[in-house]
Design goal:
The chain has 446 residues and is mostly helical. It contains 20 helices and five strands. Among the domains are: 32 residues; 72 residues; 65 residues; 75 residues, Serine Threonine Protein Phosphatase 5, Tetratricopeptide repeat. The strands form two sheets. Strands 4-3-5 form a three-stranded antiparallel beta sheet, with no helix packed on it.
């Protein structure tokens, strides 16, 4: 209603103006640079109105061409962004599906349409990684590291690759550059811990671990276990240096952090015995057996008693394993000692229970020894040894990151370089007693 009244008012004013100009035509003269125009004021006003109308039409047409048509720069930019977003989504889908060629093509299309943004550079690096194009991966990550908005992502990915290649010199250089750009980046302490652990700088690694725990970047359970591992490694170095008091103290710290760390219990017991504290040594080994029975603990418990009679050694082992009497290792340890002193029925009873619960090559071999020793039944012994040949693999120290197995515990996996990821188990057994891959403090980014 108001708009209609406004239009009527304008029409009225225009009619009044036209009538006034008709009653007062007047003369209008324009003289410019040798060019002369003489007309009435009414005609001049009409020409001016026509000129304004033409200018408005030209202005509107220009705006339409530059903003509302498919050829407008803004529309072209929006269209490129839409196509780029589609290419990024298709690249992510192809990467997830493992379609390497499609992933690479869509990643390059996203780069062409959107330019070198953090997401397109990451996609290009990932696609190149799937093609096993190390140069392409490195080139994309270096470009990413040079950006202000995604530089730290690039540095972190380059650092992960350097650690995977075991190039600690390059890893330390990248870490220094990243820390200079952002000293408070949450993964700097993680990377510093990883590098210190790989170089064997246990005290330095322990300090970085404290910082990680204070920043809540690692769970308390993992922090305690890793700290126990580091304390054991420091204790082992102290033992090699002849520092017996430090050895026992640090080995006890290690067991407080990780009561299942068998090598720490063995080292602590040996250090206690050297100090003349045999009872403390026995207590340490007994507590460790309760946490996780392991053959090395039996061997450590028998150290210093090599001259005992077989019967005395059997009684000692029976007493030692009583904190976990039904465990497989307890039964095998009792059976082996019983065979040595000729307690065939005791050995047979323990071995029958062990074979029923967890058949193993050791149990079958010991049963063959029972058959030979008790009844000289070589045929029965051969049958047990045949079963031993096809029995499941024995427990070994297995890496939770790459699955490699070893007979002895190691701090760093020689195969994948991960730290403190070995657990004593069979390959077919359930999950590790700690978080396997999660124990690699610095996770893979790509």
């Amino acid at each position: 209603m108001a708009r209609m009244l406004f239009i009527i008012l304008l029409a009225f004013l225009a009619a009044v103006g036209a009538a006034w100009l008709a009653d007062n035509p007047g003369r209008a003269v324009i003289d410019w640079n040798g060019w002369r125009l003489e007309t009435t004021a009414a005609i001049l006003a009409l020409l001016l109105l026509l000129a304004v109308a033409v200018l408005l039409i030209v202005f509107r047409l220009t705006v339409w061409l530059l903003r509302d048509t498919p050829f407008a720069p803004e529309r072209r930019r929006e269209r490129r962004q839409r196509k780029g977003a589609v290419a990024v989504n298709l690249a992510l889908t192809a990467l997830a599906a493992g379609r390497i060629r499609d992933a690479h093509r869509q990643a390059e299309e996203g780069m062409r349409l959107l330019g070198p943004t953090p997401i397109t550079l990451l996609l290009r690096a990932r696609a190149a990684e799937m093609k096993r194009d190390n140069h392409g991966v490195h080139e994309a990550l270096v470009a990413l590291a040079g950006r202000e908005d995604g530089g730290l992502i690039g540095y972190k990915a380059l650092l992960v690759r350097a650690l995977a290649a075991k190039d600690l010199k390059e890893a330390k250089r990248l870490l220094l550059e990243a820390a200079a750009r952002d000293p408070e980046a949450p993964w700097v302490d993680e990377a510093s811990f990883e590098i210190a652990a790989r170089e064997g700088h246990w005290e330095e690694a322990r300090q970085h671990l404290k910082a990680l725990r204070a920043s809540h970047l690692i769970s308390d359970a993992d922090a305690k276990r890793l700290d126990g591992t580091l304390a054991f490694l420091i204790a082992r170095d102290a033992d090699l240096s002849g520092k017996s008091n430090d050895t026992l103290r640090l080995a006890r710290e290690a067991l407080r952090g990780d009561p299942r760390l068998t090598p720490a219990a063995v080292l602590a017991a040996r250090a206690a015995r050297r100090d003349g504290r045999a009872t403390a040594a026995d207590d340490l080994l007994t507590a460790a057996w309760r946490e996780r029975p392991h053959p090395d603990l039996v061997a450590a418990a028998l150290e210093g008693y090599e001259n005992e009679t077989a019967a005395a050694r059997y009684r000692r082992i029976v007493d030692f394993v009583k904190t976990a009497p039904e465990a497989e290792e307890s039964r095998l340890a009792r059976a082996a000692a019983a065979i040595e002193c000729g307690h065939w029925q005791d050995a047979r009873r323990d071995l029958a229970a062990a074979i029923k619960d967890t058949p193993s090559s050791r149990a079958f071999e010991l049963m063959a020894m029972v058959e030979e020793g008790q009844s000289s039944d070589r045929a029965a012994a051969a049958g047990w040894r045949d079963k031993a040949a096809g029995a499941p693999a024995e427990r070994r120290w297995m890496c939770g990151s790459c699955g490699s197995a070893r007979d002895h515990w190691v701090a760093r996996c020689p195969s994948c370089g991960s730290f403190a990821t070995h657990d004593w188990r069979r390959g077919e057994e359930g999950p590790l007693s700690f978080a396997g891959q999660g124990n690699r403090v610095l996770p893979d980014l790509l």
